[in-house]
Amino acid sequence: MKLNTKEQAIIPIAAFTASGDLTKLKASINQGLNLGLSIIEIREVLQQMYAYAGFPRSLNGLGTLLETVTERKVQGLIDDLGIEASPFPEGRTSFELGSENQTQLVGRPVTGDLFEFSPEIDRYLKAHLFGDIFQRDILSWKVRELATIAALANIHGVNSQLRSHYLISMNNGVTSEQLKEFIQILQKECGETIALNAKRVLEEALA
């Protein structure tokens, strides 16, 4: 089964947010809205990008979304706002939820020398990324991982993380065939160099 239209549309949105190409991001946001993504779904992708590309890129992306939606209103285009996230379970902390989510996403508890060396980054990952962000049910984990690999593919020097998230994406509903389709979308949207690197890392992950 191929990626659906919305899943395909999220890939360039995440990629251009991560690279900071706001002109291409704006075009991708327009395309996503035209294809049925809600404003809140796109906003959720852009908010998630802070964990992978930093607050400046995330904030610039959110500003571009706001600008785009405002311009479309002036043009008479009415976009679907979408549905906000469900409340978190009462009595559970972001760290507790994130620890469980991370284990389920990866398929095993995440440990290692790096996290023993820096327990703070382990806590940030669990509480902020896998708790505060991944607990929000606006996007499925499959879609969140597609956004993640799109962002990482368009950032230089993070092939190790890209390889890991290819495997995590496959643990959450993305097939190897869909990852090959992902590479084709990258080539169309981001160019040959980005796509070739992403393909090479994917081949390593699949091996």
From TrEMBL:
Entry superkingdom: Bacteria
Q: Which Pfam families match?
A: CMD
Which residues, if any, are the signal sequence? none
Q: Where is the Carboxymuconolactone decarboxylase-like domain?
A: 2-62, 119-204
PANTHER family documented for this protein: 4-CARBOXYMUCONOLACTONE DECARBOXYLASE FAMILY PROTEIN (PTHR33570), BLL4600 PROTEIN (PTHR33570:SF9)
| Name assigned to this protein | Carboxymuconolactone decarboxylase family protein
Organism of origin is Vibrio olivae
